[in-house]
Amino acid sequence: MCGIVGIFDLSGANPISEKTLASMNDSQRHRGPDEGNLHLEPGLGLGHRRLSIIDIANGQQPLFNEDGSVVVTYNGEIYNHRALASELQALGHVFRSQCDTEVIVHAWEQWGEACVERFRGMFAFAVWDRNQQCLFLARDRLGIKPLYYTTTDMHHFIFGSELKSLKSHGGFTEKLNPEAVEDYFSLGYIPDPKSIYKGVYKLPPGHCVRIQHGQGLIKSRAYWDISFTPLHGYTQADLEGELVERLEQAVAMRMLAEVPLGAFLSGGVDSSAVVAMMARQQQKAVNSCAIGFNVAEFNETQFAREVAEHCQTNHFEAQVDTDDFYLLDTLAAAYDEPFADSSAMPTYRVCQLAKQRVTVALSGDGGDEVFAGYRRHRWHMNEESIRSRLPAALRRPVFGALGSLYPKADWAPRIFRAKTTFQALARDSVGAYLHSVSISSETQRAALFSPQLCSDLQGYRVLDTFESVVNKAPTDDPLGLIQYIDMKTYLPGDILTKVDRASMAHALEVRVPLLDHEFVDWASGIPASLKLHRGEGKYIFKHAMEPYLPKGLLYRPKMGFAVPLARWFRGPLRERLEQSLLHGRLAASNLFDMTYLESLVQEHLRGQCEHSALLWALLMFDASLQKLGIEV
Fold first, then answer.
1. Which residues contact 29 (CB under 8 A, 6 or more apart)?
2. Domain containing 499 — which CATH number?
3. Which of 20, 38, 248, 413 would you label with 394, given CA atoms 20 to 30 Å apart?
4. Are residues 296 and 195 part of one domain?
5. What does the pLDDT read at residue 597?
6. 448 lies in a domain?
7. How far apart are CA 188 and CA 184, in angstroms?
8. Is 388 contained in some domain?
């Protein structure tokens, strides 16, 4: 795994500052501590930080073709690189190494922009073709690897794996993006293609962009999307057999490495299934690791040990104090922009633990999105069955009134969900799903945001982003539609961002077999009734895994990777919560109504309401303002 950077002069072939390029590259040293190299020529500079995984001796980047006219800087892994290399060699291309990077330059020579459609893996790369005078950038289909870009006042197009590399260039104004603030305080992250900065973008998953000198507008295009093509004429047994076969293949492809390899093992269904498939691929014991907590309700290590014993892994684990909130400022620096998923803390620790034994770790990320495993999927489909039977003209006033009047008893989860259900039933399907995934309501944000921020938003709502995703959806199946929303927003914006930054902070490569694009596309066609069956999420996946994992583990209640925010805020984090949120940067930012913000804090501290998720988002936003120096 690596970090990439680049500078491209849009106006012509002016010299690129080697010092600036080196500064950008060095800002990502943590992503690739083994080596760092630069390539400069008139109008272009490319940089690379390397974490050596495959062909350690010969995989240095930036890497060139035979005559030096094509050069690539690349982050990721192309798992079918050996098959592609054989195909390209048969077509006359000469290889100097065994690394997957060299496949990219020859594939570009042979197939041009269509080369990206041949790659199976996770990647973000930039290819410069001197003969065509073009720069081509691409990001993998699901967004496993990041890629940021912007244009500067000096007419430079700059890009990098992390925002900190763009900041190191120093050529753009670090001005806050109001729409990103609305997104963040609704979702807890900033969805693609936006970033916290105005004019700075993430290349969306499954997109590429071609740039040439003199080009004005930088516009990306999609080269792939999930098809949701229905799989008709198959029995459940047929689908389960193919699911196992495809998963085994996806896992096997990701076990190729010249460095120590292992797996995260939480004891949940997804990571356990990956470990079980790994154990079938090799004779020696799989290295597995788990993080535990010193509070029983947050500790899954007993389940991880059960799987480790069942699969006979070489298992190791560590216990983390649940008062591990000291990571807050470390995470703010690692993520470069506000990021409010509190599970980033245990994720950071499990990556730190894994790095002690391995350099590559397989994870079970993606299973909930691919097979509809979140509780919100079940809730949404239950609500959808009511929405489909009642006209909006009746639903909106009746359930809107109930949602307003029903007591918000945060101490009683079932009652609280009833209130949320009433509020969801008053909305259309997309608005209801947004309501389910949000950390704050539209009403809360309207009260929290200052008049100036509300004006700067110019009517934008995060619902606009969800509706734009739905308008491109290749399915109208109700369950498939919310899975598609998750795969375009939550998966790349939250889950994959969390894992990439936490793992790269420790120079650890994480591979995600459940997000193999061929596996994902095939699974998208499985009937919804086999994904969510009689209230059981991931039904077909769990059923297919029964021969390989203990049945009790497969069907136990989902725990998640949680931390005790509510207890922190009423205990050891209370002083920082009050100091950070009610004084200093947030008060000076002119972004918030401080009277309402104070009421949120006091209601939570008195135990009147449960505002943990929103308060954590505010705390991380405050830490980001401090670390990033954003101009408000």
1. 3, 36, 49
2. 3.40.50.620
3. 413
4. no
5. 95
6. no
7. 5
8. no
What does the alpha-carbon distance between residue 53 and residue 342 come to, in Å, rounded to a whole number? 30
Range of the structural domain that residue 529 is part of: 236-372+489-554
Of 58, 66, 54, nearest to 97 (Cα)? 58
Separation CA 74–CA 69 (nearest Å): 17
Report pLDDT digits (tens) over 405-418. Answer: 555 544 334 334 55
DSSP secondary structure string for all residues of 106-139: HHHHHHGGGGGGG--EEEEEEEEETTTTEEEEEE
| Total domain count, the chain | 3
The predicted pLDDT at position 26 comes to 95
Q: Say yes or no: 14 and 138 in one domain.
A: yes
pLDDT tens digits along 443-457: 999 999 999 999 999
CATH number, domain of 165, equals: 3.60.20.10
Q: Whose structure tokens read 């245990």? A: 346
Which residues of the chain are under the pLDDT cut of 50? 400, 402, 409-416
Domain boundary among 222, 255, 270: 222
Token duo for residue 85: 């290399």
Cα separation, 133 vs 416, whole angstroms:
59
Using DSSP bridges, classify how beta strands 201-202 and 148-151 pair: parallel, antiparallel or unpaired.
antiparallel
- The predicted pLDDT at position 1 comes to 58
pLDDT of residue 413: 41
What is the structure's pLDDT at 409? Answer: 42
pLDDT in tens, 259-302: 899 999 999 999 999 999 999 999 899 999 998 776 666 667 88
pLDDT at 416: 40
pLDDT of residue 311: 96
pLDDT in tens, 464-478: 999 999 999 999 999
H/E run at residue 398:
helix 392-405
Listing DSSP states for 408-429 in one string gives: --TT-HHHHHHHHHHHHHTS-H
Q: What is the DSSP string of 429-494?
A: HHHHHHHHH-SS-HHHHHHHB-HHHHHHHTT--HHHHHHHHHHT-S---HHHHHHHHHHHTHIIII
Question: How many helices and strands, by DSSP H and E, does the chain display?
Answer: 30, 17
Are 546 and 569 within one domain?
Answer: no
191 and 249 assigned to the same domain:
no
Q: Are 278 and 381 in contact (CB under 8 A)?
A: no
Asked whether residue 250 is domain-assigned, the answer is yes
